[in-house]
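Researcher: Go.
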Amino acid sequence: MSADKGRFSGVSFPLAASSEMLFVDLPPLERVRRIDAAGFLVEIWDWTRYDIDALAASGATFSSMTGYVRGRLADRDGADELLTTARKSVAVAKRLGVPRLNLHGTGLGGDGLPPRPATEVTGVMWLQAGDTLCRPGRGSRRDLRAGESERRCRPSWRAVRQGSRMPGADRIRR
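Model: Structure:
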């Protein structure tokens, strides 16, 4: 990341702008170029809508992007899909030099809203989401130090599950 990109006088932290929300009348690559030229870090959401080679060649400095393409944190099938597509997002992020990836509970549709909004969040859903976030430490992400995430997650989620009286807590996959 450029040392001064996203830095503005009187602001103590770098500023980014979303290419999904600004210059929406322009093609995606031109949005990225305009935001970068204005001095902001660039955020992208659905990277599958972009020409990754063109983004990499643009010289833009990216702040973040959505860290998966499909899936959900809080149910088993959705978690499997989220982690599968997250691996693809990690590879793209490395190509673009994106330092952080965002995970959302249900993903974002083309209009920035969840395609499958949850109207109720249960205790079981919270436990499943926590389990989903711990799973990369179990060997599915080679770029984490072996077992680091597992050591951090296991005690807290085991304690929550053992002390939980929530129906269905015993169905959380390990």
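Model: The two ends are 37 Å apart (CA to CA).
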